[in-house]
Amino acid sequence: MLCLPAGMSRKKILAVQDSATIPLFEKAVLGRPVDVTTAVSGEEILGRARADRPDLVLIDSEMPELDWVEACRRLRSDPDAGEVPIILVTSHSEAEYLERAFISGCTDYVIKPVDENELLVKVRSYLGE
Fold first, then answer.
1. Is 80 exposed, middle or buried (0-12, 13-18, 19+ CB in 10 A)?
2. Which positions ≥6 away from 24 have C-beta within 8 Å?
3. What total number of domains does the chain contain?
4. Rounded to 10 degrees, what is the CA torsion of 85, 73, 102, 14?
5. Which of 123, 63, 73 is nearest to 101 (CA)?
6. What pLDDT score does 50 carry?
7. Mean pLDDT of 70-77
């Protein structure tokens, strides 16, 4: 655990466990005062978001049980999680697909295969670094 200056709290990130992006994501935040919580399904994301109140959600477009569109919609409608930035990780780059992502509530996206630098810049930006 890293020591933080007085008054500074650790940032919390919620990510989908089964994503191939998780190792890159963890590398991107390595050495920073960040707690990464993982989930394995859309339903679990919703519960963890309510319980942990993350500062950022990383959601994969390929999730079991509840699809990412519905997970984003539910997150946005939840009073405790509605304002949390959501980054969608997807292999789709078609304009219609990305428009659907934003309409569903995603704040941003990264395209697979994920560029590590792009992911790092977006994570830092949404965490206020």
1. exposed
2. 114, 116, 119
3. 1
4. 30
5. 73
6. 87
7. 89
Residue type, 112: K
Asked whether 115 and 87 are in contact (CB, 8 A), the reply is no
Domain that holds residue 94: 11-126
Asked if residue 6 is part of any domain, the answer here is no
Straight-line distance from the first to the last Cα atom of the chain, in angstroms, rounded to the nearest whole number: 19
What pLDDT shows up at residue 26?
Answer: 63
CB 86 within 8 A of CB 57: yes
Give a yes or no: residue 5 inside a domain: no
pTM: 0.84
Indicate the pLDDT class of residue 28, thresholds 50, 70 and 90.
Answer: low
Residues 93 and 110 sit within 8 Å (Cβ to Cβ): no
